[in-house]
Write a structure and sequence with these properties.
The complex is a heterodimer of chains A (112) and B (883). Chain A has 112 residues and is mainly alpha-helical. Chain A has one domain: Arc Repressor Mutant, subunit A, CATH 1.10.10. Chain A is built from five helices and two strands. In chain A, strands 1-2 form a two-stranded antiparallel ribbon. Chain A is elongated. Chain B folds into four domains: 56 residues, no CATH class; 218 residues, no CATH class; 303 residues, no CATH class; 180 residues, no CATH class. In chain B, strands 1, 2, 3, 6, 7, 8, 9, 10, 11, 12 and 13 form an eleven-stranded mixed beta sheet that branches. The longest helix of chain B has 42 residues. Chain B is globular. The chains are: A mainly alpha (112), B alpha+beta (883).
Chain lengths: 112, 883
């Protein structure tokens, strides 16, 4: 297992895989991110990232059924592993902890 | 276009994907791409969807998707490539001198090529931003004795064309500035060189970028003006210019628009454009006198020939009446006498390089110079490549042993070729990088020399970068090809036995290439000499008047009624010798002037006219051949003088006292002039043209323009004289700026194009010669190197140093002489063509070629002699002992 730290982009992908609950595959993940944020990620980057997350053990994958809309090709469906869930939870915990320490004035300064 | 039917992915992109993508990932990626393709098809249509598909396939080329064997293959090849690079590097460093000679020659050659490329790109970019289907009307005016090509034409023609022919959809006219205009804003006076007058529809036809104001209506009303951004900044310093009032001699102008400064790469220029309707003469019909420049917009795709075809009938229909009233002849008689108005259309983008008519807005470029420069670039590159080949083949004997050993150890021919090519490509890439640096350093000087605003922009465009890299690799391949194949073909046994001899073919090829290089160099030297002879000839040619120490004061009309007092005042200065007023100076368009000789009224002649006072002819030392010149003791209001050319055209033996009739637009107002004198021909136009008939009338006569003043001053203390003249001017014309130029400097501007091209030509020629010499130097080093033993033996036998130097130089001298024979006829032919552009030209003298031949031999000798001398003075013990 290569380095187990989660990058920002990987975190987004990982979260999206969780959200899509068993319906997560390359194009679907990309679509979801593009629809829900202002960023325009490209498909090959999503694939690369999913591949890496699989190698690191945050997600596991299996091939789905072939469908006509994909020219008879199967999807690779991803789901979170317990290790992936834990990584997300850790990340959230760290963020919440840090956020709670942030003085409201600082935020105000930035929204003004 | 947008359908729900599934579309198939582009075949070759899919093939690419299947080729590189590993099997474990292929299915899912292909599926995702297919799904995305259908989605894009819904949203953007088939074409864009397929483009996106291809782009995604390319994006997917990442380490994790690649097939294992592609990666393995790659890593397996790498050490070999690396090895080649290391060996190439070592062999280049080992012979540093040889490497430097090669790199220097090639990088200078490449740098020159790039600069020429930048220049050519700049020259051909002129007016490429203009609208489609726009043409300028050019007028070829035929007279019985000559013809003149004008940029200007009668102002009633263009609007009538639009009215009569549906395929001419728009027109815009411009009256180019005639001399300078003094503009007043509040208390400030500005002297403007480029105050033109324009049509309200000018902006529909000629491209302008308006910053403020409405181009549609800006010049509709009289007394309106649009100005360029830099004029706006100069006058109003940030304030809003719209609605402000500018004052000139011709009236008041309200600013109605501001446009972005006209781009430099255009034949067009104007800093202020006033509404031409302000002048009542524009409202009146005019079919025969040339007043305005005109641009036409044709309906899309209309061939210009279609318009040119309608002109003959069109001109006859509208201009016949006016021509008859001016000349007294019917239109058909007039044409039959050898006159003609031939209108043609010039594509607006071609004007800069293809047009050189009377009254251009700028001094234009010349397409033949573009071709010349491109060929120089090719020549220089060839010379540099030849150096490369020559030095490599010359060195081949030296590397033969290396090749032999490599072959014995099992090198394949292909591997050796690759190794040599690696070496030459490394050299050319290194040269290319150095060349880029050289160009970056040299471009400001080059821009100044070429008199153009050149930038490096071209070299930063991806297309150019890819193109240049490809070119550099091709150059490396070509230059390395011959040596690579010759060297790799050596047979190891012979080489290692020491039987290796320099091949005959190699020597012939090398000598042939040296001849070729020197033929080019000699041709370039000879051409440079011829260009400079012609330039000097034009600058120093007897013009028929004395142009030295003559100042031209512009805007003399601003003196109004104080012309005489001003003249009296300045002539009191001890340094002012003489001064006279006139309507025109060389370089501006001289107005056409039609005359008939009384008693022979059926023939009409057209010449040029200028108004002068009685002091003009003495000021310029123009020779009066017959009769007298204007004289204050006579009433000269209707007196006329003419030049020798006019007398010959009119065909009158005894001109003094003859009456000349000048027809005006309305036939009843003809003026009758009395010929009082004939003066010697003088060049009032550039030497590109022959001398046309010229008539001089007096300032008291009907054409009373006094726009300029010629002041002959003594050569001492010119600065002081200038200051005094300016002080006087301030007294008599306090409201207009004082502008004085020197006549001889004005005259030199005629030959700007030739001068800049001449300078560029010299620069490139010198570089070509330098590169050729570097090659020769390197070559000489190797051949003398090979002859070390021979020289040693000769010295032992009693040969003197000079005789050895002679022996070594003889071979090169022979080659240069052959080159001379090759170069002379080609250069003679080419330069003769160039000289034909000039009405007054030098003849190419054989001396030119003798000089350039000797020049080349001398340069060759100097180059070779260093090597020969070094070899000749060496102690023979040293050269013979070494083994």
């Amino acid at each position: 297992m290569k380095g187990s730290k989660l990058g920002e982009f990987e975190e987004v992908i990982l979260l999206t895989v969780g959200i899509l609950q068993g319906e997560a595959y390359g194009l679907g993940v990309q679509r979801h991110i593009n629809e829900n944020s202002s960023r325009d990620v490209n498909l090959s980057a999503v694939h690369a990232s999913l591949n890496r997350l699989d190698e690191k053990g945050y997600v596991r994958s299996m091939l789905g059924a072939p469908s006509q809309s994909r020219g008879g090709k199967r999807k690779r469906l991803y789901e979170l592993t317990p290790f992936g869930v834990k990584a997300l939870a850790d990340m959230k915990k760290l963020r919440d902890e840090l956020w709670s320490q942030l003085s409201p004035e600082v935020l105000k300064l930035h929204t003004e | 276009m947008i359908s729900t039917e599934p579309i198939s992915p582009p075949t070759w992109a899919n093939r690419l994907l299947r080729w590189y993508c590993n099997d474990g990932l292929l299915e899912e990626i292909e599926g995702d791409l297919y799904e995305a393709l259908q989605e894009d098809n819904h949203r953007h249509g088939k074409r864009i969807a397929q483009h996106k598909y291809t782009w995604r396939v390319i994006q997917f080329i990442k380490p994790f998707t690649l097939k294992r064997d592609i990666i393995l293959n790659h890593s397996n090849n790498f050490p070999m490539v690396k090895n080649n690079i290391i060996i190439a590097y070592r062999s280049l460093v080992k012979k540093m001198g040889y490497t430097l000679v090669n790199i220097f020659g090639l990088s200078v050659g490449l740098a020159v090529c790039m600069m020429i490329l930048i220049y050519v790109d700049h020259e051909t970019s002129y007016d490429d931003f203009q609208y489609e289907d726009v043409y300028r009307i050019a007028l070829n005016r035929k007279y019985p004795d000559r013809e003149v090509n004008y940029t200007v034409m009668p102002h009633s023609i263009p609007p009538q064309l639009v009215e009569d022919f549906p395929f001419i959809v728009g027109q815009g006219r411009l009256i180019p500035p005639f001399g300078n205009t003094t503009v007043r804003y509040e208390d400030q006076y500005y002297d403007e060189e480029h105050f033109a007058l324009g049509d309200s529809t000018l902006f529909d036809v000629v491209k302008f970028d308006f910053v403020s104001g409405d181009p549609e209506s800006a010049l509709k009303d009289i007394n309106t003006v649009v100005i360029s951004e830099s004029i706006a900044k100069k006058y109003f310093k940030g304030a809003d210019p719209i609605g402000k009032n500018l004052e000139t001699n011709a009236g008041n102008w309200a600013v109605t628009g501001v446009y972005k400064d006209y781009p430099n790469n255009s034949h067009f220029r104007a800093d202020l454009i006033g509404s031409m309707y302000t002048f009542p003469f524009v409202q009146g019909p005019q079919w025969a006198a040339f007043t305005t420049m005109a641009y036409l917009k044709l309906s899309p795709g209309t061939p210009p020939e279609q318009v040119e075809e309608v002109f003959p009938d069109f001109v006859k229909k509208y201009a016949a009446g006016q021509i008859q009233s001016m000349t007294g002849q019917t239109y058909d008689e007039y044409i039959a006498a050898g006159n003609g108005y031939n209108y043609t259309l010039q594509p607006i983008r071609d004007i800069h390089l293809h047009s050189n008519l009377e009254g251009e807005l700028k001094s234009n470029g010349n397409i033949s110079y573009i071709y010349i420069f491109i060929s120089i670039a090719v020549f220089i590159l060839l010379i540099a490549c030849i150096n490369f080949m020559n030095l490599s083949t010359a060195r081949s004997t030296e590397r033969a042993k290396e090749v032999g050993i490599r072959k014995v150890l099992g090198s394949m021919k292909g591997q050796l070729v690759t190794q040599f090519l690696t070496e030459s490509i490394m050299l050319s890439v290194a040269s290319f990088i150095i060349a880029l640096g050289l160009v970056a350093l040299a471009i400001p000087y080059f821009a100044e020399l070429a008199d153009r605003q050149l930038t490096l922009d071209l070299l930063t465009q991806p297309v150019a970068i890819i193109g240049m890299l490809v070119a550099v690799i091709i150059i490396g391949l070509l230059a390395g090809l011959y040596p690579a194949f010759v060297l790799s073909a050596y047979r190891p046994v012979q080489v290692l036995k020491g039987k290796m001899q320099t091949s005959k073919l190699g020597v012939i090829l090398r000598n042939g290439l040296v001849v070729f290089q020197f033929a080019i160099s000699i041709g370039l030297i000879a051409s440079t000499v011829i260009i400079f002879n012609q330039m000097n000839f034009m600058i120093n040619k007897e013009l028929g008047y004395n142009k030295d120490h003559v100042m031209v004061i512009e805007g003399a009309n601003n003196l109004n009624d104080k012309t005489e007092v001003f003249q009296d005042a300045i002539e009191r200065e001890s340094t002012v010798i003489k001064s006279g007023y006139c309507s025109n100076i060389p370089g501006l368009i001289f107005t056409g002037f039609n005359v008939k000789v009384q008693g022979a009224e059926d023939e009409v002649f057209v010449g040029r006219q200028m108004t002068i006072d009685e002091n003009y002819i003495p000021t310029l030392d123009i020779k009066v051949l017959e009769g007298r010149q204007f004289d204050p003791n006579f009433n000269d209001t209707l007196s006329i003088m003419m030049n020798r050319a006019a007398q010959q055209v009119l065909g009158i033996e005894d001109p003094i006292g003859k009456k000349l009739i000048n027809g005006q637009q309305n036939g009843d107002q003809s003026l009758v002039f009395n010929v009082i004198g004939v003066f010697d021909d003088f060049h009032f136009q550039s030497l590109h043209r022959s001398i046309e008939p010229l008539f001089l009338t007096h300032v008291d006569g009907p054409f009373n323009f006094q726009n300029f003043m010629m002041v002959k001053i003594s050569p001492e203390n010119i600065q002081g004289t200038l200051a005094n003249l300016e002080a006087e001017w301030r007294q008599f014309a306090p409201n207009s700026p004082f502008k004085a130029t020197f006549l001889d400097q004005n005259l030199q501007e005629f030959y700007n194009t030739e001068r800049t091209s001449g300078q560029l030509f010299t620069a490139f020629t010198s570089l070509a010669i330098v590169i050729a010499c570097i090659g020769l130097f390197g070559l000489a080093a190797y051949t003398t190197g090979q002859k070390t033993k021979e020289i040693g033996v000769r010295k032992v036998m009693g040969a003197s140093v000079p005789s050895i130097i002679f022996l070594l130089s003889r071979e090169f001298t022979k080659l240069i002489l052959i080159a001379l024979v090759v170069a002379v006829p080609i250069t003679w032919y080419g330069m003769n063509n160039w000289l034909d552009d000039f009405a007054y030209r030098i003849n190419i003298s054989p001396v030119t070629f003798i000089i350039s031949g000797f020049g080349a031999i001398l340069i060759g000798w100097i180059t070779v002699s260093y090597q020969s001398f070094k070899a000749a003075v060496v102690n023979p013990v040293k050269s013979l002992r070494a083994e």
